Amino acid sequence: MANFFTHLYQRLTTNTQATIRPSQSTNRHKQSSLTPAVGPLNDLPPEANELLSLTPGRIQQLQSGQSTELEAAISSFRTGLAQIPVQHPERPWACNYLAIVLMKRFDLSGGHEGLNEAIALHREALDLRPPPHPDRFMSLDKLADILKTRFDLLGQLEDLNQSISFYQETIALLPISHPLRSKFLNNLAIARVARFQELGQREDLDISILLHQDVLALRPGRHPGRSAALINLAHSLVTRFEQSGQLNDLDKSISFYQEAIALQPARHPDRSQSLNSLGSVLVTRFEQSNQLEDLDRSISFSEEALALRPAPHPDRSQSLNILANALALRFEQLNQLDDLDRSISFSEEALALRPASHPNRSQSLINLANALALRFSQSGQRADLDKSISFSQDALALRPAPHPDRHIPLGNLARMLRIRFDQSGQREDLDQVTALNHEALGLLPATHPSRSRLLDGLGSALEREFQQSGQRADLDKSISFHEEALALRPAGHPDRSMSLHLLATILRTRFQQLGQREDLERSISFHREALALRPAPRVDRWTSLNSLANALMMRFHRSRQHEDLDQSIPLYREAIALQSAPHRDRFSTFNNLANALTTRFQQSGAREDLDQAISAYYEALDQLVSGQPPICSTSANLGRALMLAYDSSHDSEYLETAMARFRVAVTCEFAPTHERFKAAKLWASQADKSSHASALDAYQTAIELLPRLAMLALDLKSRREALTSGTDGLARNAAACAIRSGQSDKAVELLEEGRAVFWSQALQLRTPMDDLRDVKPELEKELKRISLALETGSLRDESMGPSDAAQKEMSMEQEAIHFRRLNDEWVATVEKVRQLNGFQDFMRPSRLSSLQAATKDGPLVILNTSISGSDALIMTLHGVEHIPLPDLGIEEVHNLVKLIQHATTPWGKRSFLPEADRAEIEGNLQRMPVFSGPLKILKQSLMARHGRRVSNIRMQAEEIFQHVLAVLWVSAVEPIVRSLKLSVCSFLLTQFLCFDLIISPEIRNTAKFMLVSHWTIRVSPNTRGRNIPHCRAVTISDYIVSSYAPTITAALRTATPLSTASFKMLVVIQPETLPYTTKELQKIEAHVPSEFLVRFGTPGAPASVAEAVSHLPPASIAHFAYHGHQDVKNPLDSALILEDGELKVSRIMQQPMPNASLAFLCACETAMGDKYLPDEAMHLGATLLFAGFRGVVATMWSMSDVDGPEIADKFYEILFKTNDSTMTSTSRPDTNQTARALYLAVAKLRAEGVSFARWVPFVHLGR
What we know:
Blueprint: H1 2-14, H2 46-52, H3 56-64, H4 67-82, H5 91-109, H6 112-127, H7 136-154, H8 157-173, H9 181-199, H10 202-217, H11 226-244, H12 247-262, H13 271-289, H14 292-307, H15 316-334, H16 337-352, H17 361-379, H18 382-397, H19 407-424, H20 427-442, H21 451-469, H22 472-487, H23 496-514, H24 517-532, H25 541-559, H26 562-578, H27 586-604, H28 607-622, H29 630-649, H30 652-666, H31 673-689, H32 695-704, H33 706-709, H34 716-722, H35 730-740, H36 744-754, H37 757-764, H38 770-775, H39 777-794, H40 806-834, H41 848-851, E1 860-866, E2 869-876, E3 879-885, H42 890-904, H43 915-927, H44 933-946, H45 957-980, E4 991-996, E5 1015-1019, H46 1048-1051, E6 1065-1069, H47 1076-1085, E7 1093-1096, H48 1105-1111, E8 1117-1121, E9 1123-1125, E10 1135-1138, E11 1141-1144, H49 1145-1148, E12 1158-1161, H50 1180-1187, E13 1191-1195, H51 1203-1215, E14 1217-1218, E15 1221-1222, H52 1234-1247, H53 1252-1255, E16 1258-1262
Parallel strand pairs: 1-4, 6-7, 6-8, 8-12, 12-13
Antiparallel strand pairs: 1-2, 2-3, 4-5, 9-10, 10-11, 13-16, 14-15
InterPro entries: CHAT_dom, TPR-like_helical_dom_sf
Pfam families: CHAT, TPR_10
Region (Disordered): 17-42
């Protein structure tokens, strides 16, 4: 009986050949027919005999009948199988028969349980046919087939691996001449292709091709299975071409498809599929060669295939999709609307033929979405784009996790949303793009063939993230993803030019940020390689032309090589010629061409270039629809060109039009904030320079954008980085403009709104809301919830190490999206509050009427130095008075600060200058202004003593200090003193001075030496009234007790009386490296009752970061006698260096400090600000001030260890006395005397004759 079964199996399976269709990732071999009945077996029950007597006709009858009949038969067959003993020779056949019936039910209903049961039955049959059973090969083949089916359904790799293993064993059991060998080789090849598509291992694909070649060799001439073998081999070659880009594989595949079609007459059932396959491959070759003949032939073959599949042919939808895709591609080449209309029509028909339950409906949705997106790119009809996104979303919903092809709709939806983001600038779309690409990548192994496309998609999304936020981390990650994608597309890969283009573009962007020449050179190299891979008339050639020209323009601006400029302009013109209107990117190329022509005009003065540039800018704007983000940068560029025309012609029409274009640019709501800010700054500078009436509006607009640059959704480090994008000096220039306009009160408001934005943002989250609680408690509760979440989020760690997993990166992106949405909630909720009566100014910048409260004890003076000069503003309760300071210009300030830098460097403690510094010092001295007789005598004395030769200069730091202070006194301080009518030892009310200077980036970190940049100075009279010797020059300290605050608002904070019940003073010292700190503690203990002190750094109480942090919140006074460190690159990493690590600014900011009153940082550099952001007061002292301490004592540079005990002794002696009596356990320190206490402590140190560098750095911050 077994031999008879074998013969029949051979005959039936030989007539059923499996093929792989190019439109499907896999296609399992159909189950072969059953053996005929062999008659009843007398030794078995009736149910068993019925099972073993099954015929193909009976199976067909059951499949086409009622489901209840099929279920009843399966139940009976299960009973029959149970009646057959395990050792019975017919049981393997019974297992096979029942498994086949179960698979028929699976084909009808898709139930997984039946599939799993069928696999178990085939495994049992295989176990019952151990080697060398003659029928074992049949069980191996059946089990391999069904495991492949389950893999296709569930994507479990173990099933596929077992299937391949069983196919291999099947082939090993058969002799080379066996008639079924080609069938088994074919199945193994198909499984290998499937594993390649899953893992991307090239070995599987190469072996698959070899196996298909063996199959073809076994089916020569007119063999009935030859056409199927040709098609399968062709398909594998196409797959390998998609990986390697070897055109030889593509050409061979076309040849094999053509031979297969020749073997299939018109009525052949597989002819339509072969035509579709050939049409698809011809499209692929067209995309490489741009030979329109291939595209036309593809459409012709696809139309023939469609004609062979009239409705209701089950595969008509597949032919419709293939033809629709080819027509869409031809539309992109020839711009014939009929092709696009037919493409959309065919895609819609295909979708209608694939109902919700159809396994390929998702692909039809994607095809229709792509066609609609193409029509949108031409017509700009938003409805098409919205439908495209909707269809893409539906496609994704049909492939839920863990669908093996889920990455396809994920990537497609991401692409559609990216298009909408580019049009509308909606941040939510960009967030989704990033998240979708991350999810898609997470579904694919490192070697998956689709991974490179998704890497490029994610890299492009992060590039747009960078354009929105300006965050360097987004830029670096984008480059990393594009580099990984390029590595997966080696030379010859059909998509290599795309990866080259994307990587080159983002490298160019990083060059713009960092100025690293290597990035620009790599960008140009990659763009040239991409252009070479896109010869005319390739449809994407224009992108490489445009991008290469952009890179050459950047190199021209760097090196001024006119060859680069001259090369770029014809490249732009060629790109425009390839973009037939209304191409969606045509505006960009026009804008770039205009930029290049403007630049050439600035070089050559040829008016023709400028006129052409202005015309090109208008052309670019004509391509855009109102509200599109690129309107911002293009309008700003046009405004800049119009100003050039105004400068050369003085035609006021150019000026007015330019100002109007700048206004359009900054009001483009959907443009990235940093682009709007850049446009606002350009507007302000051009309007200010030309004295246009809109200058103040421009400055106000730019300043209002600062909080958006440093939005609350960012972590602290990113917020600080966002403010480095050219924000420094903006408020000072705005104030100067207001002063020149006669609006001194507006100048004060602009200075207050435009400075310390970092801290203002942080403090908004801690704004008291008692008044709001009384009116709208639900809004108060909502704001508090959002505030807490945003403040917590701002402290998150956004750093990525090289070993961090992709999961962490994805988590960070999801966090960023979450906090951006929280930020949007915050903005919307604050706006709701402002709609309430009496809350119109809720959390808005302070107006002058509010700021004037800071002058209740006396005037407040602001010294503003900008690029246009210096001015003093005296604010009182009655208004603001302007005092011009014509003798203190920006260059004088620069020179003064350079001299102070030299005086405070280590050589300042020695008598002689290093040789390298002497020339610079002499030059600065020569440039110093001379305003008075005494100053002239001092300068002449210095120069005479040091001679005219640089090598003879021997200047001590003291002399530099004297000279700088003299200049500052004459040029700035004395006019203010005269205006305030201050006198030595006078008993005037407390006053405030605010000095505001602009300092160039390379020197501003020491700008707080005398005129402290952007700080409010509280001035108290010397109430003790000491005698000043007439032989000594009068100084500012003879008139005032100084205190500093980052903003006027900070000076408005009121003190909370200290309670002795909760009063604690934290003292942290470092005696190991700073031996005088032990004496410093002893001095403190002499004035402060022991029960109030909490000490660390003493025996048994190590000064750890954890201990310091845990004891900061309950402390009323905190005294740190430790090394301090100012981190120039990241001020938030500035720190006090404790025993076990660094107590960083960022860590201190996390602590609530409800009892905080005074912090004394007796350490180095605790009031040294950020070199790049002097307006922001980014140092330890300011951190404690904004964290809640009412006052802070800090140092502007390194202090001497020996001075700590002396300063602390006098300071706490004054502070802890009440009515001239020593403090008792029931009294409390008078922190209102903090500034005076420091003044007297420093005066005592100065009286001892120490150098300027030792007593000057101590400053009091706060009220």
